[in-house]
Design brief:
Layout (H helix, E strand, L loop, with lengths): L2 E2 L8 H13 L1 H25 L7 H5 L1 E5 L4 E6 L4 H6 L8 H11 L6 H11 L8 H30 L1
Antiparallel strand pairs: 1-3, 2-3
Length: 164
């Protein structure tokens, strides 16, 4: 993935403590929680792209992917589509290729004569931000915290069964 957002978990001391505990004693449980969360963030991000009408050719939508490191202990959700961050964060004013705007107009059923005025408006104002990935992460955070709590309980349950 060439472009991705990196979010550090912070602010919830109990969640961070549980993540550290799982990582140390039950890494497979943490990896499972991480994988499920990452897949849900991906699905939410793709749904968000459609909800904000950022689905055109499907390039961005289809490029949203999950990457895994350290056997699932580190996960990333992102995109290799170069325009993903421009939709997420918006752009400064710039003059886009009129041919690209014309092709977009054609796909959207907008008269091609609108291409130049649209390009000129982008040159004056830029494009507004339309977050799609960060909201997907925020929506999944409570579920992740719950998965971590359940994984800690399952880990201790397994530990106590094994020692008794």
């Amino acid at each position: 993935m060439s472009q991705f957002l990196s979010i550090q978990t912070g602010g919830d001391k109990e969640l961070l403590k549980n993540i550290a505990l799982l990582g140390r004693y039950f890494p497979e449980f943490l990896a499972d929680a991480n994988r499920e969360t990452a897949e849900n963030v991906k699905a939410n991000a793709q749904r968000n792209l459609k909800d904000i009408d950022a689905y055109d050719t499907g390039t961005l939508y289809n490029s949203v992917a999950v990457a895994e490191a350290r056997n699932g202990l580190i996960m990333a959700v992102g995109t290799a589509a170069a325009h993903g961050p421009f939709i997420e964060f918006g752009t400064r004013p710039h003059f886009p290729p009129v041919s690209a705007i014309a092709a977009w107009c054609k796909r959207k059923g907008i008269p091609i004569t609108a291409a130049f005025p649209i390009a000129r408006a982008i040159a004056r104002r830029g494009l507004p931000e339309r977050p799609w990935l960060y909201p997907a992460l925020l929506a999944e955070r409570p579920n992740y915290a719950q998965r971590i709590q359940l994984a800690v309980a399952a880990g201790f349950s397994r530990l106590f069964r094994g020692s008794g």
